[in-house]
Specification:
heterodimer, A: mainly alpha, two-stranded antiparallel ribbon, 22 helices, 4 strands, B: alpha/beta, six-stranded mixed β-sheet, four-stranded antiparallel β-sheet, 11 helices
Chain lengths: 549, 316
Amino acid sequence: MNPIIVKGIRERLRPKHLIASALFSLIIASTLYLSAYLDGMQSKKVYDYSSKSHQVIEENPVNGARNAFTYLLGFQGFLLMFIGTGRVASVTAEEKESGLLDYQRMTPMHPFAKVTGYLFGLPAREYFMFLLTLPFLFHCIVIGQLPWLDLLQLYAVFFSSVILYHLTAHVIGLVVPRPRAASWVSRIAVLGLYVFLPGLGQAGISFLSFLTILPTYFGKILPHLLFIGENKLGRFEAKVAEFWQDVPFFTTLISPSVFTFFMQGLLIVTLWITAHRKWRNQALPAFSKPSAIALYSIFQFLLLGCLWMFFSEGKSIGLLGESFSMNKMDKTDPHLAFIVVQSVFFGLSILSILPLINICCPNQHLFLKGIQRSRKLALPKVPMAADESSGAWLTLSLSILTIFVHAVFATLINSSDLWTEPATVLDTILIPGIFLVSMGLSLQACRELWFNLGFWGFISLVWITPLFASLVIAVGWSDQHLGLILKLLALCPLSILPLHLLAEYPPSLILSDDVKASIDEAVWFGLTLSICLTLILHLQLYRRRKQGY
Amino acid sequence: MISVKELKIHYGEHVAVDSLSFSVAKGSVFGLIGPNGAGKTTTIKAIATLLEPTYGEIFIDHISVLHQPEEARKKLGYMPDFPPVYDDLEVTEFCDLFAHAYGLSGPERIQKVEECLVLTNLQDKAKAKCKTLSRGMKQRALLAKTLVHEPSVLLLDEPAANLDPKARIDLRNLLLQLASAGKTILVSSHVLSELEDLCDAIGIMRAGKMVVSGGLDEITSITSAERLIQVEVVSACDQLEACLAKFPSISKISKLDGTGKRFSLSHSGDTKDASSILTSLIQSGIPVASFHRKQSKVEDLFLDVEAGRMKKNFNP
């Protein structure tokens, strides 16, 4: 057995721990389960929206068990996903800070075995408490007559989610220095990545919704939790269950469980690569350049697959997505939907490029180390794929990938009958393309010129300050200084592309010629400034490198 | 066995270790001395494969630590300066965890753990939780864990820092025993007098650079010419200064208090000369209560280095 798992069992499952945790788990689970079971079992009146009348449901233990299932699942999730995740992150960070992790790092165990040991050893007590909830689950399944096959799918997704969350926590523990911070950062990251980010699924980018067990729960299990005597699910439940049915991906439909496995598997592989690298050597960047490109390509592929139907036929899923869907909107104004979804696409792409450049581009010392090593190994130059090589080619690749996917979307919408005006190549592809390349290269130069403080200082100065400044001016003097507000907005990469789209494809919102001209001017101003900044930064980088820093 | 060549380690803008080179022969004990922030711990961590150098090479038995860290780790046993242990594990379980992780199994593992606990005199605490141990005992538990996979190279960062006097003597004897069994030991310490008794060679670091390194006898011969001798007499005596004036090796006599009973002599001679001073004092009928050289030679050297009096590299 894995020695780190053995260590976890010895540390956290001694008899006194077993008694305390068993009491905790059994008392909470039995209270929750029995309360929900007894409440659900009783006869009650429910309102039927279709017949607009009250319906009487007879007393039935099946209903009790079905009612209790969700509460039990919630408690199981709390044990493994909330407590377990915090435990993995804080102990990993604690051991890293104290130096215990270094002992483990020095042992000849394979990094895969070490990560496995931490994932299953650290939350050993939480897994034990989970085990104690299983009798309630079996009672629930048998009495509630729940379908085994669907439950098997749900619990498979549940455990893949648990592994994903724990792995996220472990990687955060390896990266974040302080244990208490790591514990909270991991919980916030889990909430952000797997609860808030899936909210973007409602804007049509459906793959982001499939990082949790919710799609499988709502899509597969919720319809089976209907009470005996109840005709159909409530209005909200029905809407949610309908949303999480098969997922449109390119021109096909994929089952939510399969899609969830695919999405979670992808993230698990990504996090595993990071954990493996950090276990091998704490100083290594989280991703190598080739793995960053592979990861970003998959991300773009998923965006392409999920938005394909939207741009080709105007179909979209999600509560927000549906509202933005061209089918639902006035046919004369499809441009607004295009601008909103394209802006979300550009925003997500830019926010993904930023951390990849930060992680994969070398700072001064790493770059110098690369030169010295290549000299020692008698290599003509630092190999392109090495962590020490310049990140220019990586930045270009990421920008080109984004432009390619954007070009596919533009082609799809141009060839669909939803588009009312033909767009030029310059408008649709060239201007966003030049901007993305320029933005990427300026980020890369910053990263390679300065250390963390300089890099993040640049981001806050160029990305965030203009946004805040424009907000303040807009609140105070929007009428007098529209041009200035737009120019400030055009400085931020997150807002310049939506502005460009707004200028090039004005929706039938009332945009006066003056406003349109101001937007146009602001976009050119932002673009010119971005190119100048990139040239200056690269010139400085070139000079520094020539002087050997 | 250990060979460090042109090692450079940067922490951002700060250069922690700069062009450090030294080697440690198989079966010998090398002491790394230096003030806080000299780069000792950073150097040991780099040798232990836990820090990637900015530049330079480190070899353990001809295996490159940079290029084959997994191979090098099999030969290394590392003990950090602060002894972190798994608080909720028993001492046996703590050692067993690492014996298991290093691939030992079955009765061999149990036997090896017991041997290490006996070696570090922890057999009575085998079932105690690590969190109940004193700092000194934690240090010993850590040493037991370090020895469990029989590493051929031991990297010990301040191993005696938390030990009581008896435990220090035990540790010194244990390290000498391990060195005589063929293990190569690199040890850093602030307890300089102990390094003198333990090490075959030492290196003194300052601001990331090795200022002095070499065999103990060789480098103590280069210490600054003057050294302090403290003399205490039973009662104040006028003849003392006249008697000492005969010795050209004494450049200065300072009274240490107002009683005229305690003196400090700035002495540039060797131990033989110091002995003849003492003989002369006794023969002159001066009631000498104590006569001792204030510091060890390594301490003198260390102070010279710390005060910046020895600026150039000296590697005999």
